[in-house]
Design goal:
homodimer
Amino acid sequence: MPRVSQKHLDARRRQILDGARRCFAEHGYEGATVRRLEQATGLSRGAIFHHFRDKESLFLALAEDDARRMADVVATQGLVQLMRDLLAGSRQLHPEATDSMPDDRDWLGAHLEVSRRLRTDPGFRPRWAEQSQALTAATRQRLRRQLDAGKLRTDVPVEVLAQFLELALEGLLSKLAMGLPPDDLEPVLDMVEASVRR
Amino acid sequence: MPRVSQKHLDARRRQILDGARRCFAEHGYEGATVRRLEQATGLSRGAIFHHFRDKESLFLALAEDDARRMADVVATQGLVQLMRDLLAGSRQLHPEATDSMPDDRDWLGAHLEVSRRLRTDPGFRPRWAEQSQALTAATRQRLRRQLDAGKLRTDVPVEVLAQFLELALEGLLSKLAMGLPPDDLEPVLDMVEASVRR
């Protein structure tokens, strides 16, 4: 018998994550039953829970996945560019991973679900804090590099600039996740960008 | 038999809204069963649905209530002040209504629940758009007055300034609703304020 290749395992894991994301976005965490997860992924519960210990672990893996993708964009192009990508409805948060990117609406719905669980499930918080660390760190590293390059204003501490950008990102995610008719927010993002620059 | 006074009716309505808000914040819209609404308000289903046609109408009345309170603060003190009040964890969004103000956490939880329903329930959107109109209008009126008073920058259209402030408000609401340890966001709000001023 041939051994199951790593590539095959990775593809299967990706298949589960993409289906689960749709399922969480559509039905919410509690509503995403094992049966619905089976339907959304096209896999049996046995296959799903071979890759992820339980529903909580699956959800956290999704959240971690998103945080890491956002961190990659922030590290190379900055947080304002991440916001522009999100606004453009781009399906391509991470240039190297085009073909495996989830639909933005699923992604945003899952993000809103993370917000909800942070509020209603205190046990979720420490685990999420760990996962979102990558994005927080990438934002500050990028800003420090920009500061060294003389591109940022210097009258406000970098930490405040980081929190300002994070507030705008949180607002954008919330707006987009609500699915409201998108205003033309490009000029608003221009304002956000200008506010941190020299 | 004495007629039920308007004052009594209003107090009863307020009692229902405050209890329902707690209930929606804690259990989510779907989880707020009629039985839980009875427990949270201390009233029978008969009494509750004498004042509100159904759960949907009760939820919308809450959302409208919140939008109006926020609009009152914005009209007199501006959107940045509303954000400062929220950040301070003030229980007093509207100075004239101190004794009937809900706990901020309930209020924010209910707000996050509105976001969720906007995403998952398309029928909810047009009804909410109507309710949130008060806040949108108050923000623009206030900005126009500030512009006339020479307090705002003039190189960016008022509409963009309004959307910029609304993005920050949305981000703040989202952050607070998540119940994360509040960063010291005062300097960030100072930045937001300075960004729209002359």
